[in-house]
Design brief:
Oligomer: heterodimer
Order of helices and strands of chain A: HHEHHEEEEH
Largest interface: A-B, 29 and 31 residues
Structural class of chain A: alpha+beta
Distance between the termini of chain A: 58 Å
Strand order of the largest sheet of chain B: 1-2-3-4
CATH class of the largest domain in chain A: Alpha Beta
Low-confidence stretches of chain B: none
Strand content of chain B: 35-45%
Number of helices of chain B: 3
CATH topology of the largest domain in chain A: Nuclear Transport Factor 2, Chain: A
Structural class of chain B: alpha+beta
Radius of gyration of chain A: 24 Å
Strand content of chain A: 15-25%
């Protein structure tokens, strides 16, 4: 009886092993294709798919905002003029890592572009039509990673 | 409500703006002396007027302020393509 029992248990273990391998394979596929709502936090920088050239070319500043931003952030670049500041913001859109985050005051989703080498961050509305800011965060990557619901990694 | 949002509402109240909705707001990365972060954006009031603002620090008064604070003329035309402006109007029952 004991030997019979052993023979039966071997195929059972094989089935369990096969099921375990299948589950692991499925889990692997899931983590590779999961969207932002998935629990896996690892989303590589630049993984947000946007037409950055179109945004860089066509996005505009809301009324009065380019002037205000140059006044407040101009010394950081330094960006001496509105034209320099605007050109830098558009370059950051073109060459920075793209990610999404949520604005804390309006809860609106934003597109972010961060260029690590020059420590430039540019914010854009989710539809890519408005540039909302550009500045050099004091804490660099830590700042953009810490934005609400930031997908920057 | 964030401390920054609360401060903006208080400063708008001081300017006579009560019921309002914010749109195109953005944290600006600068930490003000009281620990809050600078915020830029726009406010729509219940009369349909729009002002641009920047939550900043007044070095003379040693207090938070909205500077600059400027009125945007013809907001319907200038924000016609902004979903956040439309949402702000809906939030105030203007649309």
């Amino acid at each position: 009886m004991r030997s019979t029992s052993r023979r039966v248990s071997i195929p059972g273990a094989a089935i369990l092993l096969a099921v375990a391998i299948l589950l692991l394979a499925l889990a692997g596929c899931r983590s590779a294709t999961a969207g932002p709502a998935a629990s896996a936090p690892a989303k590589p920088a630049g993984s947000v798919e946007v037409d950055r050239e179109k945004i860089a070319r066509e996005a505009t500043w809301a009324p009065g905002q380019l002037r205000a931003h140059v006044d407040k952030h101009g010394r950081e670049g330094p960006w001496a003029s509105e034209a320099e500041y605007d050109a830098s913001a558009r370059e950051t859109i073109r060459i920075g890592s793209a990610f999404t985050y949520q604005d804390r005051e309006s809860n609106a989703e934003r597109l972010g572009f961060y260029h690590k080498d020059s420590n430039r961050f540019t914010g854009v509305t989710r539809d890519g039509r408005r540039i909302t800011t550009q500045f050099k965060p004091d804490r660099g990557e830590v700042y953009v990673r810490g934005l609400d619901r930031s997908t920057y990694r | 409500m964030t401390p920054e949002r609360h401060a903006i509402a208080r400063l708008l109240h001081e300017r006579g703006i009560e019921r309002h909705a914010l749109f195109l707001t953005q944290r600006e990365g600068s930490t003000l002396p009281d620990g809050l972060e600078a915020v830029s954006g726009f406010v729509l009031d219940e009369n349909g007027l729009v002002h641009g603002f920047w939550l900043a620090w007044d070095d003379v008064q040693q207090a938070l302020t909205l500077a600059p604070f400027y009125r945007v003329d013809e907001p319907e035309a200038r924000f016609a393509g902004d979903p956040e402006y439309r949402a702000a109007r809906r939030a105030l029952g203007l649309d």
